[in-house]
Amino acid sequence: MRKALIATVLIGTLGGGVFFSGCGSNPMSSAVSSVTESADSKSASLAPYIKAVSWFNNWSFTFNYATAPDLADMRAGKHPSNLNLPSYDRLQEELKEATGGGSSSFDSVDSSTKEVLDILEKLVPLSEKMQAYYSSAQYKVDGYAEWDKYVQEYLPLYDKFDAAYGKLDQATSQASYQISEEKIQAAKAAGHENEATFREMYLVASEIVETFDRGDNATVQSNLQKLQTLNNNFNPKTDNDNSGDVKSFKESMNSFIGNVRTYLSGDRKDSEDIIRTYNRMIDEMNDVNPNTLD
Fold this sequence. Notes:
Number of helices: 9
Number of domains: 2
Strand content: under 5%
Order of helices and strands: HHHHHHHHH
Pfam families: DUF3829 (PF12889)
Organism: Dialister pneumosintes
Structural class: mainly alpha
Shape: globular
Distance between the termini: 36 Å
Protein name: DUF3829 domain-containing protein
Radius of gyration: 22 Å
């Protein structure tokens, strides 16, 4: 299970509303509002970067069945029967749009984004030439002579991209977690226990997926118990327009917990199903407004 193929970041709930408490006469209320406004500001700056990384992670996971064999063929000196390359041009477009809106508020995200974009400046035109070569069946004319040159240029660039993108993926995840932690503390200080629980479930579920990546089943089991407890204690208001979204989220969370438990029991060997249910749960989370939960 590759971390780079998992959508670990939360867009909607990261930026879900600023908590306002009173008129600022209470020092605690003022402090809570200040912390949350700061987190919201960072959320807004980070959101376009999260959007770009989440999109590419989901795309990569969905089409890995096609791109991975072609990459393996290239490394083995074989010629793919059909060429399937990652959507580098769309990622470049998404990241340029993100940087065009300003800094992410996190140095690690900004620097890793620049590194990825610098590599994409070479990788995008090269991949377009490779796609055109296969589309036009030029290999029937030159016996793959030009193709072999493309591959010699592509593989080192791909390896650089893979390493750089891994750093960007990790940086956006860590930034996302940091903001979530700030919002959890602010929600608890404000007495918004359901909001705090909701945000904490995101962190624990994400930690479960990342721990799977390390093969640490003991820690997965421990976190699964913690997640189940949080899920049991999650008792949000349902008399509002958010009730349908909350119901969908709870159903997806139950599916995720159930799939992790089944995998740990040895009844299922396909860990990719855990990624699918995690990503679906994240999608449902993004539809929930945390400010309506208490």
